[in-house]
């Protein structure tokens, strides 16, 4: 949105306020500088220079005249506080306009005329085969050519050559071929042809032409104007931000200078253009109206351009003589122009509200090229543990001894929870955070031979033994089958005793038996055979 910004003739004029008026706002709160920079940049990009080609919304596309365009280079330009990077420059050479068509009458038009004169010795008596209207139209021409016996190809070429140089004769031939000539014009044409047939001297041709011009009624159109001189080439540039539009650097008083670059003196340089520009609503002046007082002097700086751009600008300016004349004109324009100053501080009023609304960003300030998407890590909720149950107690009971041979039996009895209050392990409440687990670093497994404990050697047989140990027989493993332990008998009571690991199993529930064994309970052995010696 464009806002009319207040200006004055001296700096700080907006601070001269009366006591009744409110104090002006600060520079940052007034938003004048920001809006001024925005409007100024848009002015330089879309309205300051004449448009060469591009698209305008709501209007037909601008089509330039026939031309040839040549790319000269690309550089950065600075206009006041504005920087336009990657600006392209072109040289446009306009093509000369096409010449206007000239009337030409060929031999075929002479042969196709209605008075039936054809080459190769065709007689004029063939005209009697035409219609009565044609005979009435061409009778004056036939009567004037009655003395000629035939029309040769040389005569036809002679008449065509004379028509190319004499516009009056060409006009009479055209009227006779179209059947629109009057009897007097046809008679005059016949006399001209007779004079060309009898004499080839230029005096006879000029006398016949003067006679035809006096008797002719139809005026001949004036000759075409001379071709216009070719138009001078233009310097066209294109902003990087508006790649679909190209602008013309207008001709006028221009000064171009080379300025050494401070960062790399002697290697690169800048081009400073001082040019007189007309306001956008004023038409560009011609070469004679270069000293228009409404023109404004503008300084354009080209940062480190290629040499091709400097050569194009130097030829576009016109050389050293033109440069000195333009310097005088620009000095006079600087003296005539009046400088205005922008108001940086504005009091609380409608203009300040309008400026704040214009400078407020109504969209989210996001980068054009966003970075990688980073998903936030999910937060772990504290775990809620249920109160643990009391550990079951194991008790052992001895089985009652029966009559006869007895043996000891070990049983596993799970005790039921008593009515007394069980002791529970401490648990975490909902509000208490879970304690952090300490990560214990696992020791690195060293790769070495199982037999000789040597490292940094190739291992075989599943990565367990080295080659020397295998060759020496140290890697030979002997398979020993597992034999479960047999119950031992008490020699006195002849009662089998449970294995030791079974007793440990009954009291220590957390320990598991060997993987290849099974739990063997104490089973009474079979009764011994009866002793026959006692019976006897």
UniProtKB/TrEMBL annotation:
This is SWR1 complex subunit swc3. Residues 207-216, 501-511 have a biased composition (Low complexity). Residues 1-21, 118-141, 207-228, 362-404, 487-536 are annotated as: Disordered. It comes from Mycena sanguinolenta. Residues 219-228 have a biased composition (Pro residues). Residues 118-138, 391-404 have a biased composition (Polar residues).
């Amino acid at each position: 949105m464009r806002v009319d910004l207040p200006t004055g003739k001296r700096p700080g004029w907006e601070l001269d306020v009366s006591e009744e008026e409110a104090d002006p706002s600060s520079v940052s709160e007034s938003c004048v500088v920001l809006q001024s920079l925005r409007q100024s940049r848009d002015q330089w990009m879309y309205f300051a220079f004449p448009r060469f080609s591009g698209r305008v919304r709501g209007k037909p596309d601008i089509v330039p005249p026939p031309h040839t365009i040549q790319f000269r280079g690309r550089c950065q330009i600075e206009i006041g506080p504005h920087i336009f990077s990657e600006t392209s420059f072109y040289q446009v050479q306009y093509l000369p306009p096409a010449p206007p068509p000239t009337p030409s009458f060929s031999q075929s038009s002479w042969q196709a005329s209605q008075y039936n004169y054809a080459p190769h010795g065709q007689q004029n008596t063939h005209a009697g085969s035409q219609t009565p209207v044609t005979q009435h139209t061409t009778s004056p021409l036939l009567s004037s050519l009655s003395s000629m016996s035939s029309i040769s190809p040389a005569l036809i070429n002679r008449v065509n050559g004379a028509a190319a140089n004499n516009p009056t004769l060409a006009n009479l031939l055209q009227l006779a071929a179209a059947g629109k000539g009057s009897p007097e014009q046809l008679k005059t044409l016949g006399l001209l042809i007779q004079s060309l047939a009898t004499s080839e001297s230029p005096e006879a041709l000029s006398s016949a032409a003067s006679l035809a011009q006096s008797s002719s009624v139809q005026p001949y159109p004036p000759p075409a104007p001379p071709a216009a001189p070719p138009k001078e080439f233009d310097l066209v540039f294109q902003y990087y931000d508006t790649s679909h539009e190209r602008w013309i650097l207008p001709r006028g008083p221009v000064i171009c200078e080379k300025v050494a670059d401070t960062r790399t003196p002697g290697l690169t340089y800048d081009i400073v253009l001082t040019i007189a520009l007309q306001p956008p609503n004023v038409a560009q002046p011609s070469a004679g109206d270069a000293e228009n007082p409404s023109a404004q002097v503008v300084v354009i700086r080209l940062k480190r351009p290629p040499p091709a751009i400097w050569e194009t600008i130097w030829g576009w300016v016109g050389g050293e003589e033109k440069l000195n004349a333009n310097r005088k004109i620009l000095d006079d324009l600087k003296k005539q122009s009046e400088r205005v100053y922008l108001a940086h501080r504005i009091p609380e009023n409608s203009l300040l509200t309008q400026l704040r609304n214009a400078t407020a960003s109504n969209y989210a300030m996001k980068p054009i090229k966003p970075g990688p998407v980073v998903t936030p890590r999910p937060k772990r909720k504290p775990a809620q543990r249920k109160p643990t149950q009391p550990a079951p107690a194991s008790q052992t009971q001895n089985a009652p001894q029966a009559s006869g041979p007895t043996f000891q039996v070990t049983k596993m009895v799970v005790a039921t929870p008593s009515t007394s209050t069980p002791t529970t392990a401490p648990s975490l409440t909902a509000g208490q955070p879970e304690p952090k687990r300490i990560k214990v670093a696992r020791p690195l497994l060293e790769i070495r031979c199982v037999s000789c404990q040597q490292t940094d050697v190739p291992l075989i047989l599943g990565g367990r033994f080295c080659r020397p140990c295998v060759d020496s027989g140290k890697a030979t493993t002997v398979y020993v089958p597992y034999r479960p332990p047999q119950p031992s008998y008490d020699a006195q009571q002849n009662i089998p005793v449970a294995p030791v690991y079974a007793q440990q199993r009954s009291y220590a529930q957390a320990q598991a038996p060997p993987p290849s064994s099974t739990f063997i309970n104490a089973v009474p052995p079979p009764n011994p055979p009866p002793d026959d010696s006692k019976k006897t």
